[in-house]
Design goal:
This protein is mainly beta. The protein has a single domain, classed as Neuraminidase, CATH 2.120.10.30. The termini are far apart. About 5% of the residues have low confidence.
C-alpha cells in the first residue's frame, strides 16, 4: 500500500513538473488564452536605416533615435533641448544626447537611478531663484531634484517630496505635467494658510488600483490630481478616470486632453477607449470635481450593467451616469491609448495643424489584437472629430507578431516627433522630408 502511494506521488510530481515545464517553454500561452491575455509575441526588431518595417505617410522619414533601452516610457526635453527618458523597470532616468546632430543619440547616460518605478518627467524653473528643477513621478510620490542645465545633470540625489501618492496597484505608473491654473477661486474657501491660486500647477495622473471597483481607500486613485510647484497641497482635479496614463494641453484652449483606457473582460468591442477633455468643476458640481464615468459608466454615459458593487460609502461618488461626463472621443476598445500630442509645427502639413496624434499601445484582452500604431485624429478645439487615419503602423505584422508597442509622443524643439517603444527598447524620430 505504501509503495503504491509512493508511486502515485512520484507520478503526480512528474505530471506537475511536466506541466510547469510546458507552460514555461510556451510562455504560459495556454493560461493567458484562458484568462483572455493575448499579447502577440514580440520579435527582434529589424533595426536599420529608415526602419523600413514601419509605414508612414509619404513625405515623412522615420529613424531610430536611441535603441537598446530597457523599456523607455516618458520622454521629456530639458531647457536646452536634451532628451530625457524614464525607464521604470530599471528605476532610472536617462539623458540621450545627439552631439553631432545626425538624428541618433550617441551618448546614453544615467542621470538618476535607484528610483521606485519612475515614469512621468517634467521641468520647472523657479521664477524668483531661477533654479531649474527636474520633477520625477515615482509610483509612491513626486520627487523634485535640482537640475544643472549647463551639463544636463542632477548634482545631488537628495530630492524633495512634492506629493504623496498611493503606491503600486494594478496601474502603478504616474504621469505629471505643468500647466495653467483653471480655477477661479481657492480650492477650499476660507483656507487662507494655503494659497491654491497659483499661476502654474503640477497635474498628476494616478490610475486605479484594480480593473473595475469602487476605490474606498483613497480619493487619489483613478484621478488627475493638482498641486503647486512647491508641493504645498495636493487636491483632486478630476475623477472617474480609470487609467489616464498620459495627458497634454490643447495649444489654443490650454485645456487638458487625456487618453483613457477602459476596463477589461467585456468582450472584444466594449468598452470604448477614450480621449477626454478634462475640465475643472464648476460651482454647481456637487462632487467638488467632475466625474468621468469609471467604474459605473463608460463612453457616452453608458451604464456598466456587469459591474456589481456594495453600497457606495463615499459621498463624492454616484453610480448615476447622468452625474458623469461623457467621453469626448470614443476609440476602438482595447487599443490602449497612451501618449498624445498636438501637431503645431509649421514644418508639418498645414492641413494637419492642431490635429491630435495618439499612440495605441496595443490590446492584451482581445481575441484578435488591435492597436500597435499611431493614429491622427482630425479634431477641433472642442473635441469634435472629423475622422481618424493611421499615421504610423507596422508594429503589428500580418502574421500576428509585434515589432514593438508605442508609448509616449513628444515633439522636440527641432520639430521632430519622438516616440518611445517600451517593448523593443527603442525611441524613434519622425520628421517631414
Amino acid at each position: 500500500m505504501q509503495l503504491r502511494l509512493k508511486k502515485n506521488y512520484i507520478v503526480l510530481i512528474l505530471v506537475v513538473l511536466g506541466a510547469a515545464g510546458y507552460l514555461w517553454i510556451t510562455n504560459f500561452q495556454l493560461v493567458k488564452k484562458i484568462v483572455g491575455y493575448n499579447v502577440p509575441q514580440t520579435t527582434q526588431l529589424p533595426v536599420g536605416p529608415g526602419v523600413d518595417f514601419l509605414k508612414a505617410p509619404e513625405g515623412f522619414r522615420v529613424s531610430v533615435f536611441a535603441e537598446g533601452l530597457a523599456g523607455p516610457r516618458v520622454i521629456a526635453f530639458d531647457p536646452r533641448g536634451r532628451v530625457l527618458a524614464s525607464v521604470p523597470k530599471e528605476g532610472k532616468v536617462l539623458v540621450l544626447e545627439d552631439q553631432d546632430n545626425d538624428g541618433f543619440a550617441e551618448i546614453k547616460r544615467v542621470v538618476l537611478q535607484g528610483l521606485r518605478l519612475p515614469h512621468g518627467l517634467d521641468f520647472y524653473t523657479d521664477p524668483k531663484s531661477k533654479i531649474a528643477y527636474l520633477y520625477v513621478a515615482e509610483t509612491h510620490q513626486v520627487s523634485r531634484f535640482v537640475y544643472n542645465v549647463v551639463d544636463g545633470s542632477v548634482p545631488s540625489a537628495i530630492s524633495k517630496n512634492i506629493a504623496n501618492l498611493p503606491a503600486d496597484g494594478r496601474h502603478f505608473s504616474r504621469t505629471i505635467a505643468f500647466g495653467p491654473n483653471f480655477r477661479k477661486a481657492q480650492i477650499i474657501a476660507g483656507k487662507s494658510e494655503v494659497d491654491t491660486q497659483v499661476p502654474v500647477k503640477l497635474y498628476i495622473s494616478v490610475g486605479s488600483s484594480c480593473d473595475v471597483c469602487v476605490e474606498t481607500e483613497t480619493w487619489k486613485r483613478a484621478a488627475i490630481l493638482e498641486s503647486d510647484p512647491e508641493g504645498s497641497f495636493t487636491a483632486e482635479f478630476a475623477g472617474g478616470l480609470r487609467n489616464s496614463v498620459f495627458f497634454t494641453f490643447h495649444p489654443e484652449t490650454k485645456e487638458i486632453w487625456a487618453t483613457e483606457m477602459g476596463r477589461d473582460n467585456l468582450g472584444d468591442e466594449l468598452p470604448p477607449d477614450e480621449v477626454n477633455i478634462v475640465k475643472v468643476a464648476d460651482e454647481g458640481n456637487k462632487f467638488g470635481a467632475r466625474r468621468y464615468g469609471w467604474p459605473f459608466c463608460y463612453g457616452n454615459r453608458v451604464k456598466d450593467t456587469t459591474f456589481k458593487f456594495d453600497k457606495i460609502t463615499r459621498t463624492d461618488l454616484s453610480s448615476n451616469c447622468v452625474d458623469t461626463e461623457p467621453a469626448t472621443i470614443e476609440l476602438p476598445a482595447h487599443s490602449a491609448p497612451l501618449g498624445l500630442a498636438f501637431i503645431t509645427s509649421d514644418k508639418w502639413p498645414k492641413e494637419w495643424h492642431n490635429d491630435l496624434l495618439v499612440a495605441y499601445h496595443g490590446s492584451w484582452n482581445r481575441s484578435e489584437p488591435t492597436g500597435y500604431k499611431i493614429v491622427r485624429l482630425d479634431v477641433d478645439k472642442n473635441g469634435k472629430s472629423f475622422g481618424t487615419s493611421d499615421f504610423i503602423s507596422g508594429w503589428l505584422t500580418s502574421d500576428g507578431k509585434t515589432l514593438g508597442r508605442p508609448v509616449d509622443l513628444k515633439f522636440g524643439p527641432d520639430d521632430a516627433l519622438y516616440i518611445s517603444d517600451d517593448s523593443s527598447g527603442t525611441i524613434y524620430r519622425v520628421v517631414p522630408r
